[in-house]
Amino acid sequence: AGTYVVSGSASGIGQAVADRLRTDGHTVIGVDLRDAEIIADLSSESGRREAVAAVLERSGGRLDGAVLAAGLGPAKGRERLIAEVNVLGVTDLLEGLRSALAATGNAKVVVIGSNSTTTTPLVPRRAVRRLRDGDLDRAVRQIRRRIGLSAPVAYAASKLAVSMWCREHAVADEWAGAGIRLNVIAPGPVLTPLLRAQLDSDTGKQVRSFPVPIRQYGTPGQFADWIALMLSPSADFLVGGVIMIDGGTDALLRPDAW
Ligand code: NAD
């Protein structure tokens, strides 16, 4: 049995993963705003620092893996918060926990990305690079210029930035070289409180019109299974992967992408 940190463990996909790992006999250190072993607000630098310190203390500086599932969906006016939680809430945590992941020799990290990365139009690439590099002020200013689209663009940009950060770091000496397998899982729509809130909002009609060829939404339990596989020895050779599990939307919109 191993020790795993799961951010966003109080709801949706993170909760399903945490339940699954506990059922399999592992120790889970959940991090969330509520109902978790560690209560922390990942939207602020101090919250992220406190979360890292608390995880290191609780784990004794040794982690078999990490699942970064805390995240915010697209909502108008939340562009800055989305960038803080979806990008820095992942990258700052992983930087802070890297030595504990390296300590076990073959740790696995799964970051929850999104298929919005390849299905959202008009995402400014420069803003994505700025988010990845931690220049949130200028990135968010640029994103807010996409009048009427700033929420979906902020969300997609945050997931693009975090996915790029993961691929870049996955292959570095400090990560792959230390036996840490860093990968991204990119879901399409999954029926969680996050998606419910979108379906119930004034953009619900647009959300419902998002084409999913298989004509159903994913479930948190399915993602818990995929993520458990990505944390298992079966995934020892998976490094820097972005695993798209989305009912066919990406293939529908980008049939020529390899
Ligand atoms: P959810 O809202 O059910 O769960 C997200 C969790 O993150 C919540 O428990 C919330 O409290 C926590 N969180 C949010 N802000 C936080 C903060 N500042 N500090 C600490 N914790 C915070 O959402 P979900 O659908 O399970 O989403 C999980 C991940 O999957 C997110 O990264 C989301 O972007 C991604 N995702 C979801 C879908 C979907 O359709 N549900 C699709 C693609 C990607």
Task: Record the SSE blueprint.
Layout: E1 3-7, H1 12-23, E2 27-32, E3 38-39, H2 45-59, E4 65-68, H3 79-102, E5 108-112, H4 116-119, H5 125-132, H6 136-144, H7 150-170, E6 181-187, H8 193-200, H9 204-209, H10 220-231, E7 242-245, H11 249-253
Parallel strand pairs: 1-2, 1-4, 2-3, 4-5, 5-6, 6-7
Helix pairs in contact: 1-10, 2-3, 3-6, 3-7, 5-6, 5-7
The protein binds nicotinamide-adenine-dinucleotide.
Nicotinamide-adenine-dinucleotide binds next to helix 1 and helix 8.
Strand order of the largest sheet: 3-2-1-4-5-6-7
Order of helices and strands: EHEEHEHEHHHHEHHHEH
Arithmetic mean of pLDDT: 97
Give the domain tally: 1
CATH superfamily: NAD(P)-binding Rossmann-like Domain
Second-tier CATH architecture: 3-Layer(aba) Sandwich
The first-level CATH class is given as Alpha Beta
Radius of gyration: 17 Å
Instruction: Report the CATH topology name.
Output: Rossmann fold
Q: Total strand count, please?
A: 7
Main beta-sheet annotation: 7 strands, parallel
| Beta-strand content estimate | 5-15%
